[in-house]
Write a structure and sequence with these properties.
CATH topology of one domain in chain B: MetI-like fold
Helix content of chain B: over 70%
Distance between the termini of chain A: 52 Å
Order of helices and strands of chain B: HHHHHHHHHH
Largest interface: A-B, 39 and 42 residues
Number of strands of chain A: 0
CATH topology of chain A: MetI-like fold
Radius of gyration of chain A: 21 Å
Shape of chain A: globular
Strand content of chain B: under 5%
Number of helices of chain A: 9
Number of domains of chain A: 1
Largest sheet of chain A: none
Distance between the termini of chain B: 34 Å
Helix content of chain A: over 70%
CATH superfamily of chain A: MetI-like
Structural class of chain B: mainly alpha
CATH class of one domain in chain B: Mainly Alpha
CATH architecture of one domain in chain B: Orthogonal Bundle
Oligomer: heterodimer
CATH class of chain A: Mainly Alpha
Chain lengths: 226, 241
């Protein structure tokens, strides 16, 4: 065992692999952050559609959610990897493919979080908003969503942890994230034990810190509503 | 879009057999990993609720460490990272006997064991404390109380979240393609490579996964109704997926 390899390649692993600063268009965070933001926007639309009264709107949303929750992420990544070039007519960089796949895949999970968040708002709020004469749109925007969002935050942080771990799968189409960076270094140095243990610790540190944060948020929320 | 569909690639030549082999490998891998995950999950989940502090810490350390690292990294670790530490003879023996499959089983089982552990722990914690106290006061030891009362009740309570985890495990078995296990996604890619028909190959794989997930969800909904404890939980509450 020789952990010198980590010190020698620390710069490449962390800056290039984790943050995405360097020669490759890569980075775990550079994929995870936009994916959660755009995924949340799309997920909110789908979650709202899922709650619509009209079957023409809520059925497609239901099918979307159930479809993407029933298929492995690896499969979805391959779908985009092969299908986007056919649709667009030229191949796109790994970053665009991975980001599209993650946004569309995560939106299905985020939609369920949004739906649960909206349904957690007490019925009385809807009635009160209706009684003051707000339209459905204003009621959603000014009364329901702000409260729902607050209830959703712990679940969103948890989903972000899942997403952060899932971004490692982008390495299978060649996107240079932390996992791929370790593979690249390993091809040169042949130190798999040290390298994979090291990136495991990096992932662990981020996920564990965030899961503690989610737990404290949840606790604070439960104190406020109690 | 100038793509020529040719669905017959899915049943002409060897492709049908490849898909079938992939399906069997996926099921085989998932089933073994599921058994490992469930055993580890029950053990560590129960330990985390026991009134013995060092055991609780050990179980918590296991869960927190394995749950918070991507499955892919665990696959690489078990397959590439660990074997070089073994003696040469053992390494050769492992790689002659399907090391990638067993590394896949381990990675998947140990990772999902940590996730099952959380499910089982919350199941146990939802059982009123008086059950445990009553069990102890009838003269059972802590171990007997867990084995005969607490764990059996918890297992009946957790069918819906355990179903979810089972489906996650099945879907995550696709990650094993990265270490060369010839499971369903691997075979789908192989068909794509040989026939250059990405759309058809991926559609076939996707439909098989969807079918498996829906089938298992249906089956577990029936199990849930069968094992539901009368009067304790609302019956038939799980969605189709």
């Amino acid at each position: 065992m020789d952990f010198q390899v980590i010190i020698n390649n620390f710069h490449f692993l962390i800056l290039q692999g984790f943050f995405g600063v360097g020669a490759f268009a890569g980075g775990t965070l550079r994929l995870a952050l936009p994916a959660i933001i755009f995924g949340f926007i799309l997920g909110t639309c789908i979650g709202l559609a899922r709650l619509a009264h009209s079957q023409w709107i809520n059925l497609p949303a239901l099918i979307y959610i159930e479809f993407f929750r029933g298929v492995p992420l690896v499969m979805v990544i391959f779908w985009f990897w092969f299908i986007i070039p056919v649709l667009v007519g030229k191949s796109l960089p790994e970053y665009s493919v991975a980001l599209t796949a993650f946004v569309i895949f995560e939106a299905a999970y985020l939609a369920e979080i949004v739906r649960a968040g909206i349904q957690s708002v007490p019925r009385g709020q809807v009635e009160a908003a209706t009684a003051t004469g707000l339209t459905r749109f204003h009621m959603m925007r000014q009364v329901i969503l702000p409260q729902a969002l607050r209830n959703m935050i712990p679940a969103l942080v948890t989903q972000f942890i899942v997403l952060l771990k899932d971004t490692s799968l982008a390495s299978i189409i060649g996107y240079v994230d932390l996992t791929k960076a370790a593979q690249i270094v390993n091809n040169r140095e042949i130190r798999p034990f040290e390298l994979y243990l090291f990136i495991a610790c990096v992932y662990w540190l981020c996920s564990y810190a965030m899961s503690r944060y989610a737990r404290s948020l949840e606790y604070r929320l439960s104190q406020r509503t109690a | 879009m100038d793509y020529q569909f040719n669905w017959s690639v899915l049943w002409s030549g060897q492709t049908g057999a490849w898909l079938f082999q992939g399906l069997i490998t996926t099921l085989h891998l998932s089933a073994l990993a599921w058994l490992l995950a469930l055993s580890l999950g029950i053990l560590s989940g129960a330990l985390r609720t026991m009134p013995i502090l060092p055991l609780r810490w050990m179980a918590s350390a296991y869960v927190e460490f394995f749950r918070n690292v991507p499955l892919l990294v665990w696959m690489f670790f078990w397959y590439f990272g660990l074997p070089p530490l073994f003696p040469q003879g053992l390494q050769d023996w492992l790689f002659e006997h399907g090391a990638e499959f067993w590394a896949g089983v381990f990675a998947l089982g140990v990772y999902h064991g940590a996730r099952f552990s959380e499910v089982i722990r919350s199941g146990i914690q939802s059982i009123p404390k008086t059950q445990f106290e009553a069990a102890l006061s009838t003269g059972l030891t802590v171990l007997q109380a867990y084995r005969l009362i607490i764990v059996p009740i918890a297992l009946r309570l957790i069918v819906p979240p355990a179903t979810n985890e089972t489906l996650n495990l099945l879907k995550n078995s696709s990650v094993a393609l990265t270490i060369g296990v010839a499971e369903l996604t691997f075979q789908t890619r192989q068909i794509e490579t040989y026939t250059a028909k990405a759309f058809e190959a991926l559609a076939a794989g996707t439909i098989i996964y969807l079918g498996l997930c829906l089938g298992i969800a249906r089956l577990m909904a029936r199990v849930e109704r069968r094992v539901a404890i009368p009067g304790l939980i609302a019956q038939g509450g799980t969605s189709a997926l």
